[in-house]
Amino acid sequence: MRRIIAVVNGAAWVRGGLAELRRDPRPELERTNFRGRTVSLGGGVAAAVGTLAGTLSAGGRDATAGVVAVLPAAALGAWDDLGEAPEDRATKGLRGHLRALREGRLTTGAAKLAGITTAGLAAGAILAAGRGRLAGTGLLDAVTSGALVAGTANLVNLLDLRPGRALKVTAIVAAPLAVVGGPGSAVAAGVAGAAGGALPSDLAETTMLGDTGANALGAALGVALAAHPLPAVRLGALAVVVAGTLASEKVSFSAVIERTPALRALDGAGRLGA
Fold first, then answer.
1. Is residue 182 part of a domain?
2. What distance in Å separates the CA atoms of residue 268 and residue 163, rounded to the nearest whole number?
3. Terminal-residue alpha carbon distance, the chain
4. Which domain holds residue 102?
5. Residue 62 included in any domain
6. In a domain, 223, yes or no
7. Number of domains observed in the structure of the chain
8. What pTM was computed for the model?
9. Which of 16, 125, 149, 192 minimizes the number of CB atoms within 10 Å of its CB?
């Protein structure tokens, strides 16, 4: 029942936010996407609110960890979306932000990564404590779980380069976790609901996730993964997240997808002009 409530809440709050955006468009949230179409960052705000609502519906320690991770991720993502300095817009990727730091320049992206990492570690500590591990291997559990939360938040954001892409990947990962049940499944259900609610307008290229929505969804998905009771699942997920993040520094996800027929078909499904 809790999973059903979470998925319904996640989707309903997103749809409600998008309906409000249609009634009261906000010009300050408008951006131009990769195809030159005008889209609204309000979609990311709605996705973040829906993600938070779905996460809260999980209840218990999972919900606490989710709020600790999602709220800062959404807030810092919004800061990066709305407060990024013009000279920082060309700074992309982990290496780019680190290079800016060496040059004595703190970008909003670097501040966001630091804040999301801190929030992720706090969420990981909450989840590790819930497994009854406060010392010894518990420290390793907290650190790896925190890294999984923060890393997933960042990776989902890196995937948000084309309409629907980040939302599809998020839903594909979250749905099985929600169906299987157990720790983290209600958070995963909330994530799946929020992703499903946000997908139609994202594919229609009227809204976009931006860092606000992508980081919030990714942080909650990371909590769902980090709450899994099996260490092998958590560590396997962390390995995938780390590999994907490092790969993004060297290769273009979009180029790989375009060269792979199955991925290209899935990526383009439902998208305008696909």
1. yes
2. 9
3. 37
4. 2-268
5. yes
6. yes
7. 1
8. 0.90
9. 16
Q: H-type helices in the chain, by residue range?
A: 2-23, 42-57, 60-83, 93-102, 108-130, 137-159, 165-180, 185-203, 210-226, 231-248, 253-259, 261-268
Spell out the per-residue pLDDT of the chain, length 274, in tens.
889 999 999 999 999 999 999 998 888 888 888 888 999 999 999 999 999 999 999 999 999 999 999 999 999 999 988 876 555 555 565 565 566 566 556 677 778 888 999 999 999 999 999 887 555 568 899 999 999 999 999 999 999 999 999 999 999 999 999 999 899 999 999 999 999 999 999 999 999 999 999 999 999 999 999 999 999 999 999 999 999 999 988 888 999 999 999 999 999 988 876 5
Residue showing tokens 């010009």:
27
Structure tokens given for 196: 């499903």
- For the chain, the helix, strand and coil percentages under 3-state DSSP, each to the nearest 5: 75, 5, 20
CA distance 132 to 110: 33
